[in-house]
Design brief:
Layout (H helix, E strand, L loop, with lengths): L6 E8 L5 E8 L6 E6 L11 H13 L3 E5 L8 E7 L2 E7 L9 H14 L4 E7 L1 H12 L5 E7 L4 H9 L1 H16 L18 H8 L10 H6 L19 E6 L9 H11 L6 E6 L10 H11 L1
Parallel strand pairs: 3-4, 3-7, 7-8, 8-9, 9-10
Antiparallel strand pairs: 1-2, 2-4, 5-6
Length: about 300
Amino acid sequence: MKNHQNKLRLVEFESTDHITLPALLYEPLNKTNKVAIFLHGNGNSSVFYAVKQMNVLADHLTQKDISLFSFNNRGAHYFHKLKRIKNGIEEDLKLGTAYELIKDCLYDIDGTVNYLSKLGYKTFYLIGESTGANKIVVYHYYKPKNKIEKYVLLSGGDDTGLYYQSMGKKKFYLALKKCQVEIKKGNGIKLVPKYLVDYLFSYQSLYDTINPDGDYNIFPFNEVFHNLKLSKKPLFREYKTINKPTLVVYGENDEYCYGDVPKCVKVLKKDCPNAKLFTFKIVKNADHGFNGKEEELAKIVSQWL
């Protein structure tokens, strides 16, 4: 697809808990009141390091008279410092994947909707990739009466199950217990030692990520496949509450789907609450991040919206 003209602005907005976040706002040349909000994944993710993906998606969306609002949420990068200004008082916060709690996405998403509403937007779509897909489901579960009209879930991940697989049962439960103890002692924001997990995590964020009954455990594929019974909560509890048009897309070669993407998608089809509201797609020869398949993905998303 050849690039076409659109307007691009670098902006800042405030989450509803008063954290300032940066964003890219792509707009069609003709005024529109429709906008898609993009939620990136965790780890070292940043929309500013995904220029090709964002530009391609924006090209397709703006040709459909839909703006794209792509922002770095509080989980961007492994670690960074952000500012909160409340009642004239400035506070430095440690954030990024190492410190983020997934439920805090409610503050970020509501902040984007508030900001974009002031710009005149009235129709909102949410696109979430990887952890961003998990965040959309968390957001809907806690705020089902929201202003979003449609959801797009790209490569939703089973982090809890993947850590269970990589750590093994004994170490997994040791990590859960250690996190609980340290959080109770007030050490939640201290970094986890490498003997537990060789990844940059605070105790609070590791517990948030691997707790089978926590908010992060949205797509428990490993539990289903191997009847692990890690969770006390019903499997896919949050996902089953979605009552809005939803597009689910995975890459055929997604490296985090236990080597069987069709099986993962089959589970999601089985557990979706309303088959008439859900559309499922598998992109041929695509990995978790749809690298090299940006055009195909953007076409699927823009046409569906």
